[in-house]
Amino acid sequence: MLDWPYSKFLITLVITLLIGRVANYVLFEALIAVNRRKEVLGMGSMIKHLRRPCGWSIPLFLTIIALGAPAFMDPMYDWGRQLAQVFFVIAFAWTLIQCEDVVQDVIRQQFDVTKEDNIRARTIHTQLNYIRKIFILIVVVLALGVILMNFDSVRQLGTTLLTSAGVAGIIIGMAAQNSIKNLLAGLQIAFTQPIRYDDVVIVEGEWGWIEDITLTYVVVRIWDLRRLVLPLNYFIEQPFQNWTKTNADILGTVFLYVDYTMPIEPLREELNRIVADHADWDKKVAQVQVTNMTDRAMEVRALVSAKNSGCAWNLRCAVREQLITFIQKNYPESLIRVRLEKEPRGKGDEARG
Description:
The chain is α+β, with helices and mostly antiparallel strands. The protein has helices at 4-37, 43-67, 78-110, 119-148, 152-161, 165-175, 177-192, 234-237, 265-276, 309-330, 347-352, and strands at residues 200-203, 206-213, 217-222, 227-231, 241-242, 250-258, 281-293, 298-306. The strands form 2 sheets. It has a 5-stranded antiparallel beta sheet. Strands 6-8-7 form a 3-stranded antiparallel beta sheet, with helices on one face.
C-alpha cells in the first residue's frame, strides 16, 4: 500500500488530468458549435488539428501548476515534476507543429493551386512547405534541448563539454557540409523561386513535374510515373528547363514529315477544326508552319496552346493522331515515300540492244 505523500501526489495528478481533459472537451465542443452556426475561416482546421494535442498539453499544464504548490516542494516529488515537465514539453511541441498546419490550411484556402492561373498560389505553397519543414526542425530541436535541461546530470555534462564545443562544431560542420549546403539551397529556392510545386521541368533529359521539395532533395514526377530524386543544390548549380516559370500556359508542338506534294492550307484548316472542338485548347494559338526540308520530305510543325502541361500533352496527342488520319484519308500520296526514276533508253542504247 502506498504511503500517504505518494497517494496525495497520485490523487492530485489524476484530478488535474481529468479537469484538463474536461476543459479541453468543453472548449472544443464550444468551438464546434460556433463553427456550425457561422463558419469561420480556419476554425474547422483548428478543431481538426489542435483537439488531440491540446487534449494532452492542457491537462499537463494544469498538472505542472498543481505540482508547483508548496505541498509538493519536498525533493521526494522532484521526479514527478520533471516527468510532468518532459511530457508537457512534448505535448506543447506537438501543439505548435499542429498550429503551423492550421496556418497552412488557411493559406491554402486563400491560394488555390487548382485554379488555371495558379502561379502565385504555387509560389506561396512552395515557400510555405519549406518554412514548415524548417519550423518543425526548430521546434523538435528546442523541445529536445528543454527536455535535456530538466536533468542536472545533462546540464553538468554540457558545462564540461562547453570548452570543446568549438572543435566539435568545426568537425560537425565539415561532416555536415553537404547537408548545410542543401539547407541553404532550399532557402534560396523557397524565396527566389527557380522551381515551385507542380512546375513542369526538364532535368537530366527527363520531362516531368516538381512533386515534392524537402529539406535536402527534390522529387520530380516523370511523365511515365517514375520519380527522379535530385539534391536541392542541383537546381542552384545546374542548368535545367522550367516550362512554367512565368505562367502555366504551354505551347505544344507536333511535327509531321510529309512529301512535297502535300498542300499546307488544308492542314491549317484541319488543325483549326480539330482544336475548335477540343476542350484542352485555350483558344490562343493554333498554327501550321513548314519549319524544315530535306532531300526526302518537308517538316511541318503544328503549334497549339493549352492552359497547363497536362492539357498540352493531351492536345498534342489528339492533334498528331487526327492530322495523320486526315493525311491518310485525303492525301495518301503525300505520305513519305522513296522514288526510283528510270531514265529512258537513248539511241545508242537501242543500237547496242
